[in-house]
Specification:
With 83 residues, this protein is an alpha+beta fold. The model has no long low-confidence stretch (mean pLDDT 81).
């Protein structure tokens, strides 16, 4: 079995931090997704990303804006489900 540890630390202005450890212990597949979604809603990092992109699609044919498309892609990738 491969021992693959990934750890992220999120620091906040109030000098507190949260450490997320993805060592494959007893976890469910969607709990981290909810945390990521709420964190994204708060800091709007997807809007920051999409504000730097050029959308060359035909305006009247657009059903979903870039924020929606990129949000879905990032959340799918975070679930290891990009296909």
């Amino acid at each position: 079995m491969r021992d693959n540890h990934t750890q992220f630390t999120f620091s906040f202005k109030n000098q507190k931090s949260i450490t997320a450890n993805f060592n494959g212990g007893l976890i469910t597949s969607d709990d981290g997704l909810l945390l990521l979604h709420k964190y994204e809603e708060k800091i709007k990092f997807i809007e920051q990303i999409t504000s730097q992109l050029v959308d060359k699609r035909t305006a009247h044919l657009i059903r979903y804006d870039l924020n929606q498309i990129v949000r879905q892609l990032i959340l799918k990738i975070s679930m290891n489900n990009a296909g």
